[in-house]
Amino acid sequence: MMGYLTTLPVLLLIVYIHWPKKFILTITHILTLTFVVIYNLCSFGECGLYREWKAKLNMQALSHFANPSEVFKSASLDLSILFFGLVLFFSFLYFRAYHRYFKPKAVTFERRVIWKSIAGFIILLPLVAGLWVIQIRGGLQDIPIQSGDSFFCTNSIANDASVNPLWSLSFEVLSWMDHRNVNIFKMMDDSKAEAIVKDLYVTKIDSTEIFLTTRRPNVVFIILESWTANAVKGYGGDDFTPFFDSLSQQGIRFTNFYPAGYVSDQGIVGLLSGYPCTPRMAIINQSSKSAKIPCINEELKPYGYQSGFVFGGDLNYGNIRSYLYNKSWDVVLEEKDFPSGMD
After folding, report:
1. Helices in the chain by DSSP H: which ranges?
2. Engineering a disulfide at 46: which of 57, 83, 252, 290 sits with its beta carbon 3.0 to 4.6 angstroms away?
């Protein structure tokens, strides 16, 4: 990763040697210090993310920064302070070290007249380029260095920590850009896939059971992200949520089901539209597509139902607002619609 980051500054210094203009050094300094800040943001951001997702920084996480204010609202105050504090402290530390020990100065090159000659340029450029190629690929071995080369034990946390965070994120971004227009999960012809799916939905015998006491029930979804069965006694967990446990005792409790995703923009669409979690990109972030999928409030409207959606945060987060208005909810409320200071 250091090979990638230093390539452009080094090339600028080679240009400066043969065309000594002050602005080239200035651009070199700005680039270097910018890379320092980016690296620190990536490193400490990954630390905060890993605590929640047990995963390195990736495109799924970056997509939420379309609305950065909501990202920091969802993080605790102490974690936000720690993040910005560490980024500022280490950036300042590296800035000082760079200016004191590594910052290129005009006098450094003026004393070395030999490199200003054509012969010097012909020798210097291929030599530096060769060394940087070796550095970028991680050595002279047949296969360039990759993340697995840093793994050293059976502890996944230690292995993840050993992988350069900026390299990992860069690889993730490039991979996403390379495959975003290609369906890498297409394993068969569309006609064959459609036939298999159609057969799955064939109902030979109507097995529907009527268990409600009314034909027009009031339908309420309570959607809680990061909720765990370990906190509900009825699911074999601790008795931390007696009210929810009472609900599970009074109604129908599902004990064999799968999550629709692991973040809001996946789970909400999964629950209300029955749309499965998709890799790399949630459909809710593609308004032209989310407008075409069904939603439970639209299905119930012909039966005289009214609908409302109350959200405890900012609806810009995960593009939820677009999805709700495309689905024509009658009432939509979010955090700013409630009185200030209301818990």
Report:
1. 2-18, 22-53, 59-63, 68-74, 77-97, 106-110, 118-137, 156-162, 165-179, 190-200, 242-250, 264-273, 287-290, 296-300, 320-326
2. 57
